[in-house]
C-alpha cells in the first residue's frame, strides 16, 4: 500500500489545529482520503474536514469541544465536567442565582477532593470517552435550559414564595401567571400548593401590589439522568438550602460510586440499581420528602 503524503499547504493548515486534537484530526482526514482511493492529502481535504467539524459543533465553546474528544486514560484526563446555563451571559430575566459562581465553587471542590481522578479510576480502558464523563449540570431557574434532567447530577436554582397578606387584594393575577398551576385564590392571601410549585419568580413578577416575596435561592437536586441507547430522566432527590449542603452530598455519592466494583458502569445505571432507600439523598439534605421519580 502506498504511503500517505501531505501537500505542504495541507500540513501548514493542519499545524493550526489545536495540539490536543491534531493527531486525531490528521487520522480522520487520511481515512477520508483513502476512502476516495487517493494517497495524498491536499489543502482542500483539510478545509473540507474543518467545515464538517465546525458544522457538527456549531455554537460550542473550545472547552465544550474538547469534552467531546476522546482522551488518554491518564491522571490528566478530565472526567468530571461542570456545565452551567448561560443566563448571566444572556441577561436572562428568569435567573434566580449566580450559577457561574456555583460552577466555580463546584470545580474548586472537585479539584480539592480529587473527584475527577476518583471517577477516572473506574474506567477500564486506555481512553476516556464522551460517555465516561460525569456531568454536573447547573440551571439558574426551574426552566432548566442546561438540561439537568439528563445529567448525572443536576442542580436547579429555585425559590419559595411568601405573601404579605395585608397588601393582597385577591385579584388572581398571580394564579394566572403561574406556569405550574400551583396557586389558587379564593380569598387573600393566595394558597400555594408546594408539591406543584417549582419555585420560579413568575408570581412575584406578576403581582400588581408587589406583595409576593421570594426566599433566598435553594437548590433542587436531580440525580441519575442520561441519554444514549436507554435514556433515563433523573430523579429529584431533595432540595438543599445552599451549595455547601450539595457538595457534601456529591462527595458521599461519588465516594460510593467510585468504590463500586463494576468498571465502566454509567452513573445513571448505578443509581437506578440502588434500592429506593439508598437513593434518598433527602436525608443528607435535611429534607423529609421522598424521592419523586421523573419517568
Entry keywords:
Sulfite Reductase Hemoprotein, domain 1; 35% helix; Alpha-Beta Plaits; 11 helices; Helicase, Ruva Protein, domain 3; 3 domains; disordered C terminus; 5-stranded mixed sheet; alpha/beta; two-stranded parallel sheet; 295 residues
How many individual domains?
Answer: 3
Overall pLDDT score:
85
CATH architecture of the largest domain: 2-Layer Sandwich
Unreliable stretches, pLDDT < 50, 5 or more residues? 281-295
Shape: elongated
Order of helices and strands: EHHEHHEEHHEEEEHEEHEEEHHH
CATH topology of the largest domain, by name, is Sulfite Reductase Hemoprotein, domain 1
Strand order of the largest sheet: 4-6-7-12-13
Radius of gyration: 24 Å
Number of strands: 13
How would you describe this structure to a colleague?
- With 295 residues, this protein is of the alpha/beta class.
- It folds into three domains: 5-56, Helicase, Ruva Protein, domain 3 (Orthogonal Bundle); 73-158 and 218-285, 2-Layer Sandwich (Sulfite Reductase Hemoprotein, domain 1); 161-214, Alpha-Beta Plaits (2-Layer Sandwich).
- The chain has eleven helices and 13 strands.
- Strands 4-6-7-12-13 form a five-stranded mixed sheet.
- A hairpin with a 6-residue loop joins strand 9 and strand 10 (191-192).
- Helix 1 packs parallel to helix 3.
- The chain starts with a strand and ends in a 10-residue tail after the last helix.
Short account of what is shown:
The protein has 295 residues and is an alpha/beta fold. 35% of the residues lie in helices and 16% in strands.
What order do the helices and strands come in, and which of them pair?
Elements: E1 5-6, H1 8-15, H2 19-35, E2 40-41, H3 43-56, H4 62-68, E3 71-72, E4 80-84, H5 99-112, H6 115-120, E5 127-128, E6 134-139, E7 153-158, E8 161-163, H7 173-177, E9 183-184, E10 191-192, H8 202-206, E11 212-214, E12 218-223, E13 235-240, H9 243-258, H10 267-273, H11 282-285
Parallel strand pairs: 1-2, 4-6, 6-7
Antiparallel strand pairs: 3-5, 7-12, 8-11, 9-10, 12-13
Helix pairs in contact: 1-3
